[in-house]
Amino acid sequence: MKTIVFNDDNLSEDEVAVTSIKARGILINNEKEILVAKYGGVLLLPGGTLDKGEEIEETLVRELREELGLEILVENRTPDLLIEQLVKNYPRRRNAGFTDRLSSTYYFLIHTNEIFDNMCGELTESENKCNFTTFLVPINNVAEIVTQNAESTINPRDKYFSRELLAVVEETKKLVRR
């Protein structure tokens, strides 16, 4: 598994006040289109936060079921990519101030030609309120979509999600070439 670390402020792990662990799916079809989600004004890949007592694979399975109505099997499978972001003064949700944060996101590459319907999942109240939606984007056009979104969103967390999404897409391009 490849690991990419972003740490612009040289934040040490001792300085971290909040740790977030997530699992996300890199869903790509035969046409090399990737499934991108938009949630709270930011672009990201489907998935979410690890619940207490959950293994990372269980998180991915649960989140893809909730968000997409998709049942996948990832038992005994290791993630393809880990992205860690250490951020000083990370803007918390709903204007709840700032925190020094470590985010560790595990990505699993999933080849599928499944048709996704946003109405099949069981979105959380927050996902419904923040207009969670998904759409397919040719993998070579993701950077353009991220740039357009950055120009239109007011979410202060967008720069971290955008940076991560672009890094994931670049690594995915290498993985699908193999």
What is the structure about, briefly put?
This protein is α/β, with parallel strands linked by helices and 178 residues long. The protein has one domain: Nucleoside Triphosphate Pyrophosphohydrolase, CATH 3.90.79.10.
Would you kindly provide a written description of the structure presented here, covering whatever features stand out?
The protein is α/β, with parallel strands linked by helices and 178 residues long. The protein has a single domain, classed as Nucleoside Triphosphate Pyrophosphohydrolase (Alpha-Beta Complex). 28% of the residues lie in helices and 34% in strands. It has helices at residues 56-68, 125-129, 142-152, 158-177; strands spanning 2-6, 18-28, 33-39, 42-44, 47-49, 81-91, 98-111, 133-138. Strands 1-6-7-2-5 form a five-stranded mixed beta sheet, with helices on both faces. A three-stranded antiparallel beta sheet has the order 4-3-8. The protein is globular and about 40 Å long. The two termini are 15 Å apart.
Secondary structure: elements and pairs:
Elements: E1 2-6, E2 18-28, E3 33-39, E4 42-44, E5 47-49, H1 56-68, E6 81-91, E7 98-111, H2 125-129, E8 133-138, H3 142-152, H4 158-177
Parallel strand pairs: 1-6, 2-7
Antiparallel strand pairs: 2-5, 3-4, 3-8, 6-7
Helix pairs in contact: 3-4
